[in-house]
Amino acid sequence: MDANTAEQIVLRAVQSVFDQIGEPLPENLSAESVLVGPDAIIDSLGVVSLIVEIEQIVEAEHGVSVILANDKAMSAKNSPFRTVGVLAAHVIATIEEAKAA
Amino acid sequence: MTDAKKVMLITGTRKGIGRYLAEYYINQGYLVEGCSRKECDIDSPFYHHHFVDVADEKGVRTMVADIVKRHGRLDVVLNNAAIASMNHVLLTPAASANRMLEVNVTGTMLVCREAAKVMMRKRWGRIVNFTTIVAPIALAGEAVYAASKSAVVTFTRILAFELGQWGITCNSFGATPIMTDMIRGVPKEKVDEVVNGLAIKRLGTPEDCANVCDFFISPASDNITGQVIYLGGIT
Ligand SMILES: NC(=O)c1ccc[n+]([C@@H]2O[C@H](COP(=O)([O-])OP(=O)(O)OC[C@H]3O[C@@H](n4cnc5c(N)ncnc54)[C@H](OP(=O)(O)O)[C@@H]3O)[C@@H](O)[C@H]2O)c1
């Protein structure tokens, strides 16, 4: 999967989380948008929904069953979910791992 | 495909309590999905079996994905599968302790995790995790098994808080001794001693288990979560 496809998946999932909570999508959503920590655009439960949503999109549209869960999930410094871009890279890496296994 | 019937996953349906519950809930009008490591001979158009070890992360994921593919929903989970190795702690090998924790605790957690991901989409779900009275009565000879089941209770209490916002309730159910293969090897005097310590001095039955599950999974029980109900008067 290329970086652009992964980022689009993450952005669609972000959109879906905002739809679920019934709030408008923040402006200037980009690869730099923060998902974890004090500046995050969603709260920690939003992150949970987001990850589940991405796993479902990846499985439904790309036929790969992945677990994005990670022990460092909620660490603002090291989380693989900390921004849209970092999360997209994590999605790619996890898919590669799942395919290699 | 989406079914009008509710879909229930029961783990450990090959024999014992899980087997009884599978047949009971088929008769109640559920589509029952079951699993065990060995062959299961439940024969019903409303039953589907998965050969899955609940401690196997990949297997559990594949099973839940398959349920979603065929039914488009998962409404109720009864985490019944478990193993017990009754032994004095001084005679318990690490491998047997690890295996009990892996099946009883990690297995329960994995099934809850994958099921909850499906339930949260519909904002409705019922999870019942099986514990035992030997944890609260601190029965000598079952230290590791009881500890694994205490872990299930604590896990379930916290799960209730983590999943409540999606309309998913999570409760634990602890049976008294019931004559299944699990306790067939326990000496009769030991079982009698436990039964004599109960408020209701009789063995438990699979019907007792269905009764408590019925309560927990009822649509009316949407405000009952994080609880544990033991049979026989144990608290
Ligand atoms: N019987 C009692 O006195 C009693 C009392 C209190 C609580 N409980 C609880 O009630 C539940 C059911 O007990 P039971 O007496 O019916 O036990 P059982 O007769 O030994 O049956 C256990 C069932 O779980 C399945 N199972 C075991 N390990 C599994 C695994 N790793 N993955 C998938 N399936 C697995 C078994 O099938 P396979 O072997 O084919 O996998 C079997 O169908 C357990 O949680 C137990 O702790 C029982």
How is this structure best described in words?
The complex is a heterodimer of chains A (101) and B (235). Chain A has 101 residues and is an all-alpha fold. Chain A has a single domain (3-100), classed as Non-ribosomal Peptide Synthetase Peptidyl Carrier Protein, Chain A (Orthogonal Bundle), CATH 1.10.1200.10. In chain A, 54% of the residues lie in helices and 0% in strands. Chain A has helices spanning 3-21, 44-62, 84-100. The mean pLDDT of chain A is 93. By secondary structure, chain B is of the alpha/beta class. Chain B has one domain: Rossmann fold (3-Layer(aba) Sandwich), CATH 3.40.50.720. Helix content of chain B is 43%, strand content 17%. Chain B contains 7 helices and 7 strands. Chain B has helices at residues 16-27, 57-71, 94-122, 143-163, 181-184, 188-196, 206-217; strands at 7-11, 31-36, 47-51, 76-79, 125-132, 168-175, 228-230. Chain B has a 7-stranded parallel sheet, sandwiched between helices. In chain B, helix 2 (57-71) runs parallel beside helix 3. The longest helix of chain B is centred in the middle third of the chain and has 29 residues, at 94-122. Chain B is globular, with a radius of gyration of 17 Å. The complex binds NADP nicotinamide-adenine-dinucleotide phosphate.
